[in-house]
Structures are given as structure tokens and as C-alpha cells.
Design a protein that fits this description.
By secondary structure, the protein is α/β, with parallel strands linked by helices.
Length: about 425
């Protein structure tokens, strides 16, 4: 067996190992969805807890009014929650729009914090820390500025966390509001349902752990106080704080009945900038928490660490190596005796990917249609391949930021 054969075999084994892990998560997640659909969400306690909803916003004039109006319309007792919008160093008309909202709802607990380029403009974590200082809630819920949560979203989150002291946080899910705007948003919609929420459901079913998303989640106030707030160096602040909650001995639960709708990027340029930021932020979290792999007290979260490590390093390296070797073999620059096997396994992986992804759509009304099958097939050869570029570029930016000690900035996702 040649060196090229060995490299090809290693790549194939790594890719298939991670693919099988994904299959296990899909099956487990699907079982959890079925169980949860039959289960009633715990009701609010008789003594309804006071909750603070925080909305960090930077130049969100196009969407901020709709978001705040949706939060004011939640079916949670109006006198038992407050809304704090951190208008963080915005240069658009956000300040005027938020002032009008305050005037329209004078009896509601709506606080607007306007920061400048000295106190703000340093990222979402910094904005959340500013808002937390003025919060009064027993629980803290976070919503992104482009969100329109369903009326029951907050009630379901509070119902879960208030009835289980082992939970440090409860997450709902976000759906793609503009999923029919373009082919890209249709890809994102399927990606979100399959690789975000089905994986979260599977991890909860198997390990009783989930990762906090950037929006539609609730946490205990004492956790934020104990850990000293959000890490201002983390641009994937949601993943970063998840690991700190794990280490405190709490669990993070997924409640898919709590839903918010958000706007996703409609152009490749905006999508690439957003996803590169996510990749760079997640790599920061992986590197920061890597020592926990050798910490016995962190045994219960080793799967999550290995899962993220495998996706951003092992899978990326294996995919690039296998694709490169197959191309070089086809061009005649290298020779491998298992090229045929590699091609067969690649085709089998595509079939498994398409089948597994399509099956995950069963959990959502209106998504189980034949057109989505073709979208998934097209998604594999285009959108999923772009992920390799995003992960590689995110890793490059992480290295560059580390070397030059660049300050974290708020990278704004363009709204429509």
C-alpha cells in the first residue's frame, strides 16, 4: 500500500466515522422530537418569575421595531418581564425608532440603552454585559435584533427552567423567516433544521447537553453573576458560555416548541462574512477549552469538545485531503489503488447525506416536499463544499487575530 493509499484510507475512515456519528444524532434527535411532541410543556409556576429580555442591536433600524413589538406581544404576564434593548453605537435611525416605541408603550417596562464608540461597539458580549448591569430579572433571556418570537416562546422556556433546578439554561429554536427569498436562504433553512436543531435534539437525547444558540434562550441570573458575564473576546459568545455552564454542573435543555423566526443572509457575500465569523468564534472556544479534554471533572462534556474539534479540524482536513487526492489521481499526478473504493464510498456518503437530511424535515410542517429533495442534492455539491472554505478562512483569521492581538469588533450582518 502506497503513502497515497494510506492517506486516502485515513481520510475515508475519518469522514465516515463522523458521518455515522451524524446518523446516530439524527436518529436520536428524531426520537426526541416524537417524545417531546407528546409531552406537555410545564406550566408557569404560581409565583411567576420576573424575566429580563435583552436585545443587543447595532444598526438594526430595518428590523428593530418589528422585534420589540413581537417581544411586547408575548403571552407572558406583562408586569413580569422587562425588555432591555442595547442600541450599541449605532449610526442609523435605531435611536429614533426605539424612542418612538418607548413613547407608544409608556406603561411597559422597556429600557433603551444607547452606547457610543467609547462604551460600546466592541461586540455582542460587551453589549450584553452592559445590559445585564441594568437587568432585574431572576432569569435572563436573549433575542437577536432581527427576531420575531412566537407568542408562546418565552412561556415555554420559563416553564422548563423553573421546574428543573438542574437546568442552567433552556434553548428554543430559530426558524428562517425569509426562507423563500433565494436559493441561498432555502439552503440555510434546511441546514438549520438538519444540522442545527436535529443535532441539538440528538445531543440532548443522548447526553442531556446542548449548545446555546445566539438567540431564543434563557439562563439563570446567578450563573451570569458567578461567571462574571460574557467573555468579551468571544465572538461566538453563545458556544463559549455553554461550556462554562457545563463546567458548573448544570445541563442545557432543548425545547423545540419554543420558536422564534429570524432573517438570514440573502447574498453569498453577507453569508460568507457571517459564517466566517462563526467559524472563527467557534475555533476560539475550542482552543480555549481544549485543556478540558484532560480534566476528569469535565468528563461529561468530552463528547461536545471532541464533536466540535472533529468538525472544525478532523473533518475539514479529511475532506480537503480526500478531494485533493481524487483530483490528482484523475489528472494522473498520483496513483492510488483505492480510488475506486473512495469514489464508491463518496457516492454512498452523498446518498446517506441526502436521505438523512430529508428525513429530518419530517419534524417541520410544510417542509416535507419533493422540491426540497432536489434542493438537498444541489446543496451537497455547492453549499456544503463552501463550508470547507468558510472553516479554513475562519481558522486563518483566528490565527491572524491571535498573532496580531486584534480587538474583537461587532461584525454586522446586513438586514433586508
Amino acid at each position: 500500500m502506497t503513502v497515497v493509499d494510506i492517506l486516502m484510507l485515513i481520510a475515508v475512515v475519518c469522514i465516515w466515522s463522523l458521518l455515522l456519528v451524524n446518523v446516530v444524532l439524527i436518529i436520536s434527535g428524531y426520537l426526541y422530537y416524537i417524545e417531546n411532541e407528546k409531552r406537555e410543556v410545564p406550566p408557569l409556576p404560581d409565583d411567576v418569575p420576573f424575566v429580563t429580555l435583552m436585545v443587543p442591536a447595532h444598526n438594526e433600524g430595518k428590523v428593530i421595531t418589528q422585534t420589540v413589538e413581537a417581544l411586547l406581544a408575548l403571552d407572558y404576564p406583562p408586569d413580569r418581564y422587562e425588555i432591555i434593548v442595547i442600541n450599541d453605537n449605532s449610526s442609523d435611525n435605531s435611536s429614533e425608532l426605539l424612542a418612538r416605541l418607548q413613547a407608544r408603550f409608556p406603561t411597559r417596562q422597556l429600557t433603551i440603552i444607547n452606547t457610543d464608540n467609547v462604551t460600546g461597539g466592541k461586540g455582542k458580549s460587551n453589549a450584553l454585559n452592559i445590559g445585564f448591569k441594568q437587568s432585574k430579572g431572576e432569569y435572563i433571556a436573549i433575542y437577536d435584533a432581527d427576531n420575531t418570537p412566537e407568542k408562546t416562546a418565552l412561556r415555554y422556556l420559563v416553564g422548563e427552567i423553573a421546574h428543573d433546578p438542574t437546568l442552567g439554561a433552556v434553548i428554543g429554536k430559530f426558524r428562517t423567516r425569509n426562507r423563500n427569498a433565494s436559493l441561498l436562504t432555502r439552503f440555510i433553512n434546511i441546514e438549520t433544521l438538519s444540522f442545527q436543531w436535529m443535532a441539538q435534539a440528538g445531543r440532548w437525547k443522548l447526553f442531556k447537553l446542548c449548545t446555546i444558540p445566539g438567540t431564543n434562550f434563557i439562563m439563570r441570573r446567578e450563573i451570569i453573576e458567578e461567571i462574571g458575564g460574557w467573555d468579551v473576546k468571544a465572538i461566538a459568545e453563545d458556544t463559549e458560555i455553554s461550556f462554562r455552564i457545563y463546567m458548573m454542573g448544570y445541563r442545557i435543555k432543548f425545547q423545540p416548541k419554543s420558536v422564534t423566526w429570524e432573517q438570514e443572509p440573502q447574498t453569498l457575500k453577507v453569508w460568507f462574512k457571517q459564517r466566517t465569523r462563526w467559524a472563527k468564534g467557534n475555533i476560539y472556544v475550542i482552543v480555549k477549552n481544549l485543556p478540558l479534554l484532560f480534566n476528569r471533572s469535565a468528563k461529561r462534556i468530552h463528547f461536545d469538545l471532541l464533536y466540535f474539534l472533529s468538525i472544525y479540524f478532523l473533518l475539514l482536513t479529511s475532506l480537503i485531503m480526500s478531494d485533493a487526492l481524487l483530483i490528482l489521481h484523475a489528472l494522473g499526478y498520483v496513483h492510488t489503488t483505492i480510488a475506486g473504493l473512495g469514489s464508491f464510498l463518496w457516492l454512498l456518503a452523498v446518498i446517506l447525506f441526502v436521505t438523512g437530511t430529508y428525513v429530518t424535515l419530517i419534524t417541520e410542517k410544510g417542509e416535507m416536499r419533493l422540491s426540497n429533495l432536489w434542493i438537498i442534492m444541489l446543496m451537497y455539491i455547492s453549499y456544503c463544499q463552501l463550508w470547507m472554505v468558510v472553516a479554513a478562512y475562519g481558522f486563518y483569521n483566528f490565527i491572524k487575530d491571535t498573532i496580531f492581538k486584534r480587538e474583537v469588533k461587532w461584525y454586522k450582518t446586513e438586514r433586508y
